[in-house]
Amino acid sequence: MAFPFSSSLAAPSSQPAPLQPRLHLPLQPPRLSLLPFSRPFALPLRLSIPRPILPALPHALSSSSGGEDGDNNNNNNSGGGGGDDGEDNDGGDGPDNRGEALFVLAQLGRKLESLPSDLAAAVEGGRVTGEIVRRFNELEGSALFRWLLQFQGFRERLLADDLFLAKLAMECGVGVIAKTAAEYEKRRENFVKEIDIVIADVVMAIVADFMLVYLPAPTVSLQPPLARNAGAIANFFHNCPDNAFQIALAGRSYSLLQRLGAIMRNGAKLFAVGTSASLIGTGVTNAIIKARKAVDKDLVDEVEDIPVVSTSVAYGVYMAISSNLRYQILAGVIEQRMLEPLLHKHKVLLSAMCFAVRTGNTFLGSLLWVDYARLVGVQKVQEEA
Hints:
Order of helices and strands: HHHHHHHHHHHHHHH
Number of strands: 0
Distance between the termini: 193 Å
């Protein structure tokens, strides 16, 4: 019996084998389209750059914007800054002052060694503000101020008041005219008869006017602290301001006792100045009187010599009390606290107002001196014959 499928199983088929399917994969995976809600995610990379270390800026400097605000602060405080009256906290803002001053030096492209030694020491000790350093740099732009800044006394006063030199010129310029006019106002018809006394007063004015502006002027103190073995009295007066009413620099303040000490210290100095000036003035006047008597014999009985010692002591006391108080109030209250904050942006008007006030003060001082000299008996009214 034949099986129908046996031949096919036993012998290989004469037809070709069917083809086997093959899967070809691409070398790179296909790029899928972005879903509508998908977005690229940024890699969380951070670049850390270290900041340069700069001196710390105080709040007063960081809040100011350029020269105008600096000028405002400058004149408001007359070269100073912040705090003031009454309480003792000397050196409280020293580190801030030091950082501010060094920052200003860096802005100006200057080194600490380029400053005078006393100013550099004050910067290191935090006793001056950056505005003082800026003012010093500005003043050095003038040949005259650069020369005056070599002297410590002028340096301390010019840094506190950039109009100090103008005020000094005003006082000395109007001194002779104002005092002569005041002498005439008091003496009137006796002016010629008392011309020798007038000359003595004018000569004393020329010598004393300079010191009357110089000594009571507000200053930026650049003097180093005294040695520890210095006496208590020396330390006390060393820490007193030059003007009893001046605005204190940032980081310093003066007690009421220290401000009273400033009046006493300047009074002692002006007593010495007044007495010396009067000795010169009366000496010159007596020499003129003797020369006039030698020429005109009729003046021997009419004109008397001026008492040198009593007049000199009286003038010294007058300067220690009247002149001392008037000029301290003028410089510290009227000019620094009243006129400068109002007119600090108008230097010409400020100078004109200072000129007017100082002229009036000089004239008032001459009137007061005549009355005082007659009261204490060093000058006598010449009676009409």
